[in-house]
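Table S7 (text form). Paired inputs.
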Amino acid sequence: MKVRTLEEAAQSNRRIVSPDKNWESTRLLLKDDAMGFSFHITTIYENADFQMHYKNHLESVYCISGEGEVETLADGKKYPIKPGTIYILDKHDKHILRAFKEMKMACVFNPPLNGKEVHNAEGAYELTSEEVSA
């Protein structure tokens, strides 16, 4: 059994702040925990507006607090996000996330992240060389 708190994880190298300062993520569960997925508590800063495209990962996101919207680029649909909302990127959906009020989100990734990832120019997380060859 593993037990860790959000507070202690946020004080460690498990807390990542995006280079563009749109978000920060405390990664509570990572690939080396050997659960087959990763689990993060992510803060999307107020007025953040950025595009993502997780080509290599599936993601589910549950809103704990705040307010915003997610827009799918394939069809231009906008979905409001408020506490209690989950959105599921089950088709590697290219999307835009907007925070009208700072949002706290619980995020699950499959395959799991290693821990240091930040978005590349396409808004994706890269796979490691071992994940690409698997």
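Next pair, protein 2 of 2.
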Amino acid sequence: MAARLKLYTPPHEESDFDPIPEPEVRVRLGDLLPVVALAQRMNFVWLKDFLDDEVAVSQDLYEVLQAFRSNTRPTSA
């Protein structure tokens, strides 16, 4: 007798319409960047778990990052 496949139905996840919670912890960018850069350089898998998380930045930092991004051309190897 063949075994029946049981499908797992995950619990309801937050929808796109749920309000974004306020940040729980504030961290200086100068403290955060070296840790994230090291984790990326060493290819730690746990960093990939957070790639879809949102990070709040000030408006002026956002504008600087956007300008930097639009003026930086990737180099071909």
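Helices lie at 29-41, 59-71.
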